[in-house]
Amino acid sequence: MQQTFTIRKFVPDDLQSVMQINRVCLPENYTDFFFVDLHQRFPETFIIAEEGGKAAGYIMCRIEVGLSNYGFGGLIRKGHVVSIAVLPQSRRKGIAQALINRALEGMEYYKAKQCFLEVRVTNEAGISLYKKLGFEVTRTVNGYYSDGEDAYVMTKRIP
Ligand code: ACO
Ligand code: ZN
Fold first, then answer.
1. What would the pLDDT profile of 24-82 be if each residue is shown by its tens digit?
2. Which residues face 57 on adjacent strands?
3. Distance, CA 134 to ligand 1 centroid (Å)?
4. Ligand 1 in contact with 124 (CB < 6 A)?
5. Category of 145 on φ-ψ map: left (φ > 0), alpha (ψ -120 to 50) or beta
6. Backbone angles phi, psi at 125, to 5 degrees
7. CATH of the domain at 13
8. Among the residues of the chain, which ranges form H helices?
9. Quick check: 41 and 33 in contact, CB under 8 A?
């Protein structure tokens, strides 16, 4: 099937649509400052999917420094997927997969050696998506979410 969406970098005019997608799709919501700040610091990993001329999904990330999960020791840069979401009517078309792949290129540009994220242990769509892209569960964080649910930390090497 023909791809129905396009992938591009976030621009400040996208702020309201991204905040709306975030509210529709996830219980974890953020202030406008939080989105703007992430974009100012890490523009290469704040990516939008557009379908029919409108934003249908986003991914936003942060680069952090931490210990390697893969035994080559010392401190490395890690790309942290802070939030990803796709509007319900635009799902199962490969949009999230395309968003993550584009964000991974941005992480590579920032010289990150790993990518990681937290996901609810009951989020089957998210977990399958990340596994399909080569992420593996590296840790469970008990009570990570404000409602008490546990998170899996999932990690992937870059490139
Ligand atoms: N059930 C099972 N597997 C799924 C599902 C699902 N509902 N959705 C995606 N997948 C897996 C499949 O393997 C799929 O490949 P396939 O369609 O060829 O079988 C693969 O992931 C790729 O799917 P995409 O079409 O790229 O994913 P989509 O664009 O639908 O977005 C997402 C997936 C982001 C999880 C979407 O369902 C969503 O927005 N959910 C609500 C918000 C959310 O949970 N965000 C992630 C929270 S964790 C975090 O932000 C770090
Ligand atoms: Zn996180």
1. 999 999 999 999 999 999 999 999 999 999 999 999 999 999 998 876 678 999 999 99
2. 49, 86
3. 14
4. yes
5. beta
6. -60, -50
7. 3.40.630.30
8. 15-25, 32-41, 95-109, 124-132
9. no
Check if the beta carbon of residue 64 is closer than 8 Å to that of residue 108: no
Cα(23)–Cα(17) distance, integer angstroms: 10
Q: CA nearest 114: which of 104, 124, 122, 123?
A: 104
Neighbours of 3 (CB within 10 A): 11
Find out whether 120 and 145 touch, Cβ atoms under 8 Å.
yes
User: Over the stretch 137-149, which tens digit does the pLDDT of each residue have?
Assistant: 999 999 999 999 9
CA distance 17 to 39: 14
Instruction: Give how many domains the chain has, as a whole number.
Output: 1
Say what the pTM is. Answer: 0.98
- Whether 96 is in the pocket of ligand 1, judged by its Cβ within 6 Å, is yes
Cβ–ligand 1 distance for 101 under 6 Å, the answer: no
Q: Given 3-state DSSP classes, what are the helix, strand and coil percentages for the chain, each rounded to the nearest 5?
A: 35, 35, 30
Nearest atom (ligand 1) to Cα of 87: 39
- For ligand 1, whether the C-beta of 83 sits within 6 Å is yes
Range of the domain at 111: 5-157
